[in-house]
Amino acid sequence: MTIIAGFPFRDGIMMCADTEEVISSEGKAETEKLRLFPEARPFVLCGGAWDSNLVEFAMDVIEEDFSTNSYKD
After folding, report:
1. What's the DSSP call for residue 54?
2. Neighbours of 8 (CB within 10 A)
3. Could you tell me if 52 and 31 are in contact, meaning their C-beta atoms sit under 8 angstroms apart?
4. In the chain, where the domains are located
């Protein structure tokens, strides 16, 4: 089970996530479930769960969009 939690603060939201991924019924691994997109202003933080390959792909697409479009100040 993935846990991604957000906590509101005066200046924004703090997000945190676990790093455990179930590979099979017998194995587990660690993976990053949050990715910061510093190119975007304000900063964007994305989190994902379930299939890590699909999450990585989705985050790559989002990152590519931020790097090719003008979301800057």
Report:
1. H
2. 8
3. yes
4. 4-68
For residue 71 the two structure tokens come to: 């979301």
Q: Which two tokens stand for residue 28?
A: 């587990």
pLDDT higher than 90, residue 57: yes
- Rounded Cα distance between 46 and 34, Å, is 6
Model confidence at 66, in pLDDT bands (50, 70, 90)? confident
Which residue in 35, 6, 31 sits closest to 21, CA to CA? 31
Residue whose C-alpha is closest to residue 58's, from 30, 42, 39, 34: 34
Q: Is the peptide bond before 42 cis (omega within 30 degrees of 0)?
A: yes
Helix (H, G, I), strand (E, B) or coil at 57: helix
Q: Which pair of tokens denotes residue 64?
A: 């590519």
What 17-23 contacts at long range (C-beta under 8 Å, 24+ apart), as own/partner pairs, is 17/47, 21/52
pTM: 0.68
